[in-house]
Structures are given as structure tokens and as C-alpha cells.
Amino acid sequence: MRRLMLRGDNIILFCDFSDKEMAKSFKDYRWNNHIKCWQYPFDVDKINKMKEMWPDLEIDGGIEEKVQRLIERIKVLDNIKAGKVKFDIDYKFKTEPYEHQRICLQWLVEYFRDGFANGAGIFDDVSLGKSKEALDFAQWAIQNGFVERVVTLVPKTIRGKWENEVLEHTDLVPVLIGGTKDKRESKLNKNGHVYIMNYTAGVIFDKRVKELAKNQLVIVDEAHVLRTPQPKAQIMKLVESLESKYLLLLTATPSYGHLHHLFNLLQLTGKFWRSWYSFKDKYMKMGGYGNYLCIGYKNKDDLQAKFNSISIRRLTTEIYDLPPKIYEDRLVQMEGDQLKAYELMRDEMILAWKDVSEKELRERYTQVVVQLIRLQQIADGFLSDGVKQQWLKKNAKLNELDSILENMIEGAKKKVVIMSHFVPPVVFLWERYKEKYGAVHLYGKTKGEDRQEVVNKFRDDDNYKIFICQTSTGGVGLDLDSTKRKKIKTDVIKTSTDWMERVMVFWRTSWVFSENLQAEGRCSGTRQCGTLNIIRLLAENTIDTKILKYSKKNQAEGMEMQGDINKISKAELMDILQA
Description:
Elements: E1 3-7, E2 10-14, H1 20-25, E3 30-32, E4 37-41, H2 44-53, E5 58-59, H3 61-81, H4 99-112, E6 119-122, H5 130-143, E7 150-154, H6 159-169, E8 174-176, H7 181-187, E9 194-198, H8 199-204, H9 206-213, E10 217-221, H10 233-241, E11 246-250, H11 259-270, H12 276-283, E12 284-287, E13 293-297, H13 300-309, E14 311-312, H14 316-319, E15 325-332, H15 336-353, H16 358-363, H17 365-380, E16 382-384, E17 389-391, H18 396-411, E18 415-420, H19 423-437, E19 439-442, H20 448-460, E20 466-470, H21 471-474, H22 483-486, E21 502-506, H23 513-521, E22 532-539, H24 543-557, H25 570-577
Helix pairs in contact: 3-4, 4-5, 5-6, 15-17
């Protein structure tokens, strides 16, 4: 006798011992020795395969009902995404939404209806207003009695931005959790609707946060931090442990990394798999030494379907008719001390690693990472011991940047944004240009209260013509559109004027290509009026050009996030080092 039953989010299979191997072939199983059955996460495809394999399979009515409900619900949700369903939500927006924001609210209300699911992703592109979309749903849920409050976990640098968004888009009362430990603890006990805290505060006060979040709405902004196992494991564990009624994950870059990161985001919202190992077994092709490397994917259509089922994502280019981005790679020639230092470091690495095995490379990879960082720093024009920096004479990139700024600022009267992966160039370039061009700078150590002041100076004051920023810091929560742009209606045909256009220069691009895209989004959002000119400074025949090559490759293929540079093979390492 074979029988399939429904228990919670699992399907349970009772079958004879002779069916053991076939039961295992469905993967992602757990044998329940107590009631002698096989348990699987609810999966329509798995159910259909069982029906095909065993025509005599007895199926509990609850399963057929849930399958039919799931098919119908997915169809309705897809129609909402496509704009085929009339907006009929009883909700008064405080700030007028764009059409895509109306659609998002309608999709969220339908998605969470009747307890159909408790986690969703708002994965809209940069500058499409994910925070407004989440806050409109929050106010709707509170007004209709589904929740009483919202716990919002965000990066430290954008807590103030979220407080302003709450006040601008809703009538809810924000509670900003900041200050000393005692002050944060006190604010967590204040009455309000939207509790806004950075990830670290959430982890430190996890007990109180769990109390606030129980059966309520939790919003995690810049949720791509949950993709990375280390050192963000604590925030991942916190989010997993919250017994929230609704969970919203917000990020513009949900799937630009290793599939392990995609697993975390989907598992938080959909509970599709029993473990990481069953996910890896179904979707990843492993190879290399000890089957350690992901060399490709399989069952991608199934993974894409699951991704679409728990999230809503629209690209900026789908919503707005934006001006183009124009890319220009400026190749510069190193010489003198800079060239000598680079060749010496490169040759030492080739000598050290060319004859080692793949296994030994893995075991000693910390050394490789340190050496690759030093190689990049030399290409940027400086040597560092981790504390002090020595800038090399005849810096090739610096000479080219001087020329770019002179042409763009003094000649074309444009403002310029400079992005650097490392912090030392941010500080060095600020010191160099602050008097001449009124440069401002922003990096990891910039205080939260100073962050917006720096942004306001650059975008709204003509005396500040250069914005210098660390890529990882500037790619999150920044709005570099000037107030002049904001006054222009989006339905007006725009004429190109000097102040409408902007130039972005990458002193160094990131290994993580999505980080570069996020940074570009700060200047090419929905209000961008003129063309965004993007110039990448690359030292010719060096690691610079190879980083760009591999980050583009992995971005295009959806392969491993290039920021995880310990994933590259020995062959790739040798290619990076060769001129």
C-alpha cells in the first residue's frame, strides 16, 4: 500500500520496504522512524512524479486541494505582476505612488492573504522605491489589524534615511534605535509602530527583538547581506529565529552571487528544501579538487520558478525610459617605481604558486588573498602595511584622473563621482582635490549623522564638484540626484544640459560586479536626466583588466560571486598574474 498525506508544510509517504530505493530517488527526504514514513518538503513536481511512478498511489484530499490552490494563487499573482488585475486595495497612499508601486502593494496583499505564505522578497532594481513599497504594505497591515508594529533591520548608515522614509510615506510613528547601549535598550521599550535598528543592534538585543517581532512584520533592507555565510552569520541566525507573521526581504541584487547565497534568501521565504545539501544536490554541478567548486548549474528552470514565486522584481529599464550609460575603459601605463613594485610582486607570486597542487592552493589560500590585495594596491599606486600607506611616484592613474577632472569640471562644467574599492585612495584623493574642486568624501568610518550632510553638499551646492566614495559604502542607500532633477516631472521630455549629466570614475572596480552596478545606480536612478558617463581607470596588462574580465564573466553566467576570491581555480590565478 502506498499513501501520500499532508502534514504542515511537508508531504508524508507511506510505502512498503520494497519501495525504499524509489522513495530515496525523490531526494530531499527524511525517514521518520517513529511513524515509519518518508517526509519531504511540499513540492508540486515531486507529487506529480510520485503519481507517475505509482498510478495506484492513494493521495490525501488535502494535498490535491493545496496543489490546486497553489496553482490558482500563482496564476493570480503572475497576473498582478503583469498589471492585468485592477487595483482594488482599500488604502489611501500618503505620497502618490508610481504604477509599479501600486502593483507591488497589490501583489503583497494577495501573496500574504489567508496565511498563504509568510515571507516575500521585494527585489526591485535600484531607485524603484523598495522602502516605500514595504512601508505602504506595513501601514496597510497595521490599519487592517494584521499586525501592530514593524521591526526593520537595516545597515547602520541608512537608519536615518529609513526614519525619514517612514515620516514621508506613512502616518506611522518611527522609533530609531541608536546611541549608547543603554539608550538603545531604552528605545526598544518605547511605544511606536516602526522600530528601526542596524543589524548589530538586532543581534545584541536579540531577546527583545524577538519579542517585538513575534507575529508582527519584519523588514530586512539590503538583504543581500544574508547571502554571505561569514561574517554575517549572526544576522542570518537572528532573522531565521524571528517568529514573525510576515517577512519582507529588500535588495536590488538578490542573485548575483554564489548559489549558496540564493539558497539563504529563498529558504527564509519559501522553506523549499530540507537542507543546503539537498539544494546543492539538485541545482549545482560540482567539480575541481574534492568536488569543491561549482562548475555549472542544473534544473535552472525549476530554481527560477521558485525564485519568481516568492518575489517581485522589476528592472529600472522596464519602468522608465532612461538615458543610456556610456562606458569607457581608460588604460594607463605604469612606469618607474610603480611598475618595478608591481612586476616584483607579480613575479614572486608566479614563482610561489605555479608548481603547487590545487589542494595546496586551497590550504594556503589566505596567503593568496593577501598577495592579490597587495597587487591591486600597487596598481592603484600605493603600498600598505595595513596601517600606513606609501604613495608611489609617477602614479599612472592619478595623472589620468587629473586630466579627466580638468576636462569634465573646468571644461564641460560637470560634477564627478569617484568610486574606489579601497579606503586609502578615498582619503588621498579627497586631500588632493578638496581645495581645488570642493571635494567631499564618504567611506566606512563616516558617521551616520554626517553622511547625509556630505551627500547634500555634493548634489545641491555648486561649490562641491567631486564626490569621492568607497564602492561598498556608496552603493547602499545613497541618492545623488540633485534637487534640480527632482523638480523635473518624469513625463516631460528632457533636454540635455550640463548639470543634467554626470560622470562616474571608478578608480578601482570591485571583484563583485553587482557592487559596481549598485554604485552606478546612485547616479542613474529614476530621475536621471542626462547620460551617465562611466570611466574605468585600468592599469594596462595588470590585475585590473583581469578583475573586470572575471567579474563580468561570473555576473553574466550567474556563477560564484567574484568577491569570494577564494573560489578561483589555480588556472584562473595564473591567468590573472600573467601580463
